Amino acid sequence: MIANLVQLAAEEEQNPLIPPGPELLVGAIAFAIVFFFFWKKLLPNINKVLEERRAAIEGGIEEADAMKVEAQSVLEQYKAQLAEARHEAARLRQEAQEQGATLIAEMRAEGQRQREEIVAAGHSQLDADRKAASSALRQDVGKLATELAGKLVGESLEDHARQSRVIDRFLDDLEEKAEATR
Length: 182
Prior knowledge:
Elements: H1 2-13, H2 21-153, H3 160-181
Helix pairs in contact: 2-3
């Protein structure tokens, strides 16, 4: 029993947080083997994967920057083309307005010319109709006047030359009086 007690007292003096010497030695050797394995085999693979990932990220960033520059260039080209198209549209609109104004002026001139032709033709037709009516009226008035004069005088006034002179003189006097009263 005493031996048990001595052994129990010796065990109680040992700290439970500090392992015994042989366990510490085996643990240190196992740690060294695992550390060596990680350092020689696993760490280079991990570094290689990390390096590839870093290169891929940097390449992606560079590619994104290049695409950004290209997109900016395309945007500038688009803006330039758009400005050019707007300028061209404005020029075409101005040309169309000028052509429209020219066409309107030509049509007005043509309409004015046609109107003047129609008015001139109307005046000439009116003058011709007036002359024809005047001539017909002179003949009719002359006949009626001669017949009336013949009935009043009681004899025939059939001498055409004299009859025409008398009628013309009478009608000319009437026209002069009509123009004087206007």
